[in-house]
Amino acid sequence: MLQGQRETRRSGVAAGGVRSGVSYANMAVLALALVYFLFPVYWLIISATKAYTQLFSTNGFLPGSKFSVFTNLNALFSFQHSVYLYWFGNTLLYAVVGGGLATLIATVAGYAFGKYDFRGKSVAFGIIIGGVLVPGTALVLPLYLLFDKLALLNSYWSIIIPSTISPFGMYLARIYASRGIPDEILEAARVDGAREATVFRRIGFPMMKPAIVTIFLFQFVATFNDYFLPLVMLNNTHLYPMALGLNSWSALTTLPGTPRDIYTIILMGALLSVLPLVVAVVLLQRYWSGGLGVGAVKG
Amino acid sequence: MRDGRKYAPYVLILPFAALFVGLRIIPIGYAIGESFFKTRGSGLGLGVPTTSFAGLSNFTEVLTKGYFWSGVERVLLYGIVQVPVKMALAMMLALILDSGLVRFRRIFRFFYFLPYAVPGVIAAILWGFLYYPSLSPVVGVVRHLPGLAGFTPLGSSSLLWSIANIATWAGAGFDMLIFIASLQTIPMELLEAARVDGASEWRIATRIKVRMIGPAVGLSAIFSVIGTLQLFTEPKILATLSTAVTSHYTPNLYAYSQALVAGRYHYAAAVSVSLALLTFVFSFAVLGFISKRGGLQ
Predict the structure, then answer these.
(1) Whole-model pTM?
(2) How far is it, in rounded angstroms, from Cα B259 to Cα B12?
(3) Residue B50 three-state SS
(4) Model confidence over B227-274: pLDDT tens digits?
């Protein structure tokens, strides 16, 4: 399926770099697609930095006459006793700790599937991949009951523990390990007398770095975005991640007695919530060409 | 040393396996088990409710009454349109970026992927505001177009497609990246040979490239189908802005509201299990379809 050989992989100009001229028709299509993907984000930035009095009255695509970033940030951070700061922190906590643990565990397991043969290997892998097909409700609702019995509901653990398993990450790790780590290198070390643990620690695991980064970023994004699990597990608003928190505010917009700048607060909260992920995506792009399943070719 | 090698894989897999059992096998088993029971309140509701074995009666109720099938119909209709549209968009962008006929590839790629970085809930809230007539910069403009005076993205006839748009917007970039990565593994010699034979870039793209990345298409299709059948977040978020979203709008929403709002946990478990089985069936169907079209090993 995937070649990954240095001679056949395309690079430089040959990899679809500009050859004969530029096709304006194709560029036009790309530009149109760009508008589609970007205009909501553009609108978000414009609207979140407007004064709330101008939100409904001025054109959505033009900045207002008052630059209100700091006013809006202040409103956001003070609303409901600064609960947003908890939400932001919680989201990072769940994504970093959950994502980090998930990455470690999945990478190590994927390496094992990729580099070793053992009894029951295919069956085990099949079951694990089958687990990916199960819908969220079939998992989250029973987890809710189980955690209730374990008295872990409505706690940091109720989010972090379920976030530590990543079958997809394990799948990626397996592919990377089997294609990207030559058996010869491992064999050479074994022949030289190295113990298996050393072979793994000194050679195998470090070679998994690109896969580790990719898997972590995917897990980080997945946990960061998770809505259903926190929705079911959490009651205490101080434990909410941003996704849950912002939606709870969104439900306020139709209720009387809500402050008039609620839309602006939500929009500014949404804008800030996107920033960590944008950073993650930028980092992901750098590793992308080498990471995802393309094998041993570097860069 | 021999022993170390023999035990190594088991040691490495142990944490993952333990978590998998605890977070996948046990919950699934629990859900299946729960779906065979019923809890009855006692008479006036003053005594302790009794839980008893109910056989397949929950499943019978799911499959013959209630809103399971109407929810399934809705997500299937949604999926038949949304998945091909999203993948076609991703494929088109991937092929154009791979064609060698355009500039600023990296920049375009980055911005097409950016929506994926917007949390699903945020994307739904954002688009919810963009659909909301008094707040949206777009709805007013569209309503001036001929024939579109009644444009109401949050109304019951358009809501499903408004949701489809959100999912496409958020997900096309991800598929595009998978396709691009796969396109880059196509050997140059193959493409050069075709060019030498006089094939145009268009023919190369549609005849050769698409077929050669069959596995990537298959992978994307399967994940898309799973995501489609499990639709939950977007309708739930838009429920605050649109009266068209019912508590049984999608099968997952139905299971959720039955479990946590109506308190009918066993029935909800049966709904979830039924949805899981349906998902398996459809995933294999999609897999089979893609294999036949050519490409999967």
Answers:
(1) 0.83
(2) 37
(3) strand
(4) 888 899 899 999 888 888 899 999 999 999 998 888 888 898 899 889
B175 touches chain A (CB under 8 A): no
Determine whether the interchain pair A30/B34 forms a contact, defined as Cβ–Cβ distance below 8 Å: no
Spatial neighbors of A141 by CB under 8 A, at least 6 apart, are A232, B31, B255, B256, B259, B260, B265, B268, B269, B272
Pair of tokens at residue A87: 């939400």
A274 contacts in B (CB within 8 Å)? 117-119, 122
Q: Which two tokens stand for residue A59?
A: 């054109």
Looking at domain A69-291, its CATH class is mainly alpha
Domain boundaries, chain A: 69-291
Calculate Rg over the CA atoms of chain A: 24
- Structural domains present in chain B: 57-293 (1.10.3720.10)
The answer to whether residue A298 scores a pLDDT higher than 50 is no
Q: How far apart are CA B158 and CA A218, in angstroms?
A: 32
H or E element: which one contains B40? strand B37-40
Contact in structure between B111 and A37 (CB atoms under 8 Å): yes
**In b/e form, how buried is each residue of B242-264, taking b as 16+ CB within 10 angstroms?**
bebbbebbbbbbbbbbbbeeeeb
Asked if the ipTM is above 0.85, the reply is: no
User: Dihedrals φ, ψ of A177, to 5°?
Assistant: -65, -45
Contact B24, A131 (CB under 8 A): yes
Residue A293 main-chain phi, psi, to 5 deg = 70, 15
Give A-chain residues touching B92 at CB under 8 angstroms: 29
Residue identified by tokens 């955690």 is A147
Q: Which residue's entry shows tokens 């070719």?
A: A297
Picking from B36, B129, B213, B250 by the largest number of A CB atoms within 10 A of its own CB, the best residue to mutate is B129
What is the maximum alpha-carbon separation in chain B? 84
Q: Give the residues across from B51 on adjacent strands.
A: B39
Report d(CA A90, CA A157) in Å as an integer: 12
* Measured torsion, CA atoms of residues B94, B99, B102, B104, in degrees rounded to the nearest 10: 50
Q: How far apart are CA B171 and CA B193, in angstroms?
A: 34
Compute the average pLDDT of residues B193-198: 86
In the structure encoding, which two tokens stand for residue A155, read together?
A: 């706690």
CB A185 within 8 A of CB A203: yes
Give CA–CA dist A108/A58, Å, rounded: 54
Question: Which of B2, B11, B16 to mutate to test binding with chain A, by most A CBs within 10 Å of its CB?
Answer: B16
Torsion of CA A207, A213, A218, A224, to 10 degrees: 140
Q: Which residues of chain A neighbour B112 with C-beta distances below 8 Å?
A: 33-34, 37
Q: Is A288 exposed, middle or buried (0-12, 13-18, 19+ CB in 10 A)?
A: buried
